[in-house]
Amino acid sequence: MGVKPWTVSLDGRVELVAVLEALTGRNPCPKGEESADLALARKALDARHDAVKFMKAMDEKAWRHRHPSLIILDFGQPPALSISRQREHYANAGKDDAVARLLPAARDFAAQPAFAAWLAAARARHAGAVAQVDSWIEESAYLKPVEDYLGLPLPHRYRFAVSPLLHGSTPHNVLYRPEHPEDEGLCEIHSIVGHRRVEEGAPDFSFKIGDFRRTAWHEVCHTVIDLWTQERRAQLEGLSGLYRLMTGLAKAKYDGPPGWLHMIDEHVIRATTCRLIGLHEDAEAGIKALEKERRDGFALIGPVHELLKEYESSRGKYPTLRDFYPRLEALLVRLHGGLSGARR
Hints:
This protein is of the alpha/beta class. The chain has helices at about 10-25, 35-45, 50-55, 70, 100-110, 115-125, 125-140, 145-150, 210-230, 235, 250-255, 260-280, 285-295, 300-315, 320-344, and strands spanning about 5-10, 155-165, 170-175, 185-195. The chain has two domains: about 5-140 and about 145-195, no CATH class; about 230-344, no CATH class. Helix 12 runs antiparallel to helix 13, helix 12 (about 260-280) packs across helix 14 (about 300-315) and helix 14 runs antiparallel to helix 15 (about 320-344). The longest helix is centred in the middle third of the chain and has 23 residues, at about 210-230.
């Protein structure tokens, strides 16, 4: 395989915000399950520090409705926490942006020897679990199925952060497109998964290889499918009336016509992931995944999923999913026409 396209680690940035959240009383452990990491943090670190107070005062809006562990990835490693991504978001540092106003206090907190010592101890304590997760990812061979399905090598690196202080099993994910020469033209996909009590012998994080593989397939697809949608933006924007069919999570997550192009991305990506599950896990699992997408309100997922079967059977004509994309557009045009006809 050569150089692995993924890394697994405890990320100092993620652990910094996790510690600050934990010291505010947020992000609690499950009842009766306080981890050694949190116990040591409470004993060694100052809960009266300004960074903790500032963190406690921040609400969801201040974090731009993203999880703090994702926002912190816009910055370099502590203690410097230099702005390295999405610089325009922090142009008013110290003025209008709550995250930027937190930075001076967070840098001071991260520069304290006690935090550095806690982080080093956590890395040592969880080194075995990190290595095991890395091994499980390698054994999963997650990349080949999605590359083969899309028909092309994918421009990405996958950063998988395990966090002793984040609790719960839902990963947080973010995609960064290349901005700097050092990015080497590659997208960076970051997934963060937290701690939980698991069965004996498994890594001490809420991690299942099947869940990782599905999450990876979804996020990796974004690196190329988003661009193909944007290339056809002029044709697709006029179909935004289909958005009114969405319900539930789909409607809540992507806000109306302004999010329509992203909604198209999500339908194609989610349908592709369902097909991959059916082909590489088992057919029943693929159908269950498709039904979940329907329940979540992605109203067009069924027709898109069905059309992908044509792609799979016609790879001579359509070597890549990009070659097939006009067929997906034609499907949306047809569905939109039916919607327009129903209003007459």
